[in-house]
Amino acid sequence: MPSIPLKYGTNPHQAQASLSAEFMPLQVLNGTPSYINFLDALNAYQLVKELQEATNRPCATSFKHASPTSAACAKPLEDARLRAYFLENIPDLNASPIATAYARARGADRLSSFGDFVALSQPCDLSCARLLAQEVSDGIIAPGFEADALNLLKQKKKGGYIVIQIDPSYSPPLLEKREVFGITLQQERNHAKITPALLDHIVTRLQTLPPSAKEDLLLALITLKYTQSNSICLAYGGQAIGVGAGQQSRIHCTKIAAEKADLWHLRTHPKVLNLPFKEDLSRPTKDNLIYAYLTHGLSEADLSCLTHPIAPFSPQERADYLAGIEGVSLGSDAFFPFSDSLERAAQSGVRYIAQSGGSKQDTSVIEACDRLGMVMAFTSLRLFHH
Q: Catalytic site residue 230?
């Protein structure tokens, strides 16, 4: 059986790690992956492959610790987003669909994407490689690499950047196995298809889902299919803008996802775009300063990273800016047991929802949606992922 030795297991002290398959559908072109690298890579590639099949557009995701920070479809970035993501130095970025897909996925939650694993649904071109070359990232998986792109990526991390090429025609077996504590678990893999038909059962008074909302809801559901449960995903404009993953309560998932989505919107506030950073600051340092500025304020040490003093970002400025946000979509990997998540989601401009349904509280949840002016579809499909 073909096998690939791994750098180490989940932690460096867990040795004798390897990857094997009866038919090896991938090859490591550069670097030495670890156990976690492959968990991220294989889940991430499934996500983007399925997302491209659903949208017919090139797609990308930024993965971190077995969950996506975001996923996005290809779409040119407007000037404000190029500035917000510090990408003005890649002039041909919008000419490359796959590069725009990754730029949007990486830009949704730049704090969480620090040291990510990247998956692309299409071959990596030079524009995308140039984007990756300037970001802190651990590796990439894609169905192919242009020669110039591969050469550039091989120089990243002093030659240690992980590059994995996967056969896009590979189809895994129906049954999957996992061993935990010496005991083997087996199940059918999650082969449920996320299609527009899942959005047909609309249960609220408002019944209309615009085409853009349908695409965002499909994107959110596919993202959730590969996100550690419990999970909530907010999507807008063909990208996930807030993912709340791995929480024990749905309201905490919602709060995390909504707060991330709020910060994504606020990055294009004029005061944020015009922060007077000193020229030598790294992108991650700027990301941390923006987060501090928008949440708890800048410390004396933070202010020393600016060329001149600035006024704080007030709660009223935040509220005024976010009040203009609407048309956001939300997917949930299972039902809402209470209406508290909907109340919080409404504060972040959520108007369209897809969830499984099936709770004893479905009636009160529907009533809350009607009161908040939301459109909600019951998919009758749970998407737990562990």
A: yes
